[in-house]
Design brief:
Strand content: 15-25%
Radius of gyration: 15 Å
Structural class: alpha/beta
Shape: globular
Number of strands: 5
Number of helices: 5
Helix content: 40-55%
Distance between the termini: 19 Å
Order of helices and strands: EEEHEHEHHH
Length: 168
Amino acid sequence: MLRIIGIDPGYAIVGIGVVDYIGNKFRTLEYGAITTPAGMPTVDRLKKIYDELTMYIDKYRPDAVAVEELFFNSNQKTAINVAQARGVILVALRNNDVPVYEYTPLQVKQSVTGYGRAQKAQIQQMVKTLLGLNVVPKPDDAADALALAICHAHSNKMNNLLGLNGVR
């Protein structure tokens, strides 16, 4: 069994998805989001992300965490805030000695749908199907986090088959 936490980094919303991967089957343990209100000072928002992520790590003791790599958009302020939040996430993971694996949006799309240009709705439907859920996970950030966990499970399985354990 492999316990994986998927994390979709954000500043206002950090998507979280926790799954167990046993053989070729997934068991969803929890999904949701860490949210920070717009009026909260930056340092307090970052601390909230750190503290709540640490609670997830303590609760689930994952074997691996899959984090989405950042891609930059045209809004510089948003990009800087998300980058700060992602840094806090990485520090929380390192402080808790959790193995971290990073995946690009393209890698996640290919792993979950088989198509690197899949639309958000296609990814969400595949997450629902692969995890045997009754509904598409909400918020969207939680569905993205679960997709990251699925991507890592598939990547880890392939690495084991190829004898590339620990390579990401």
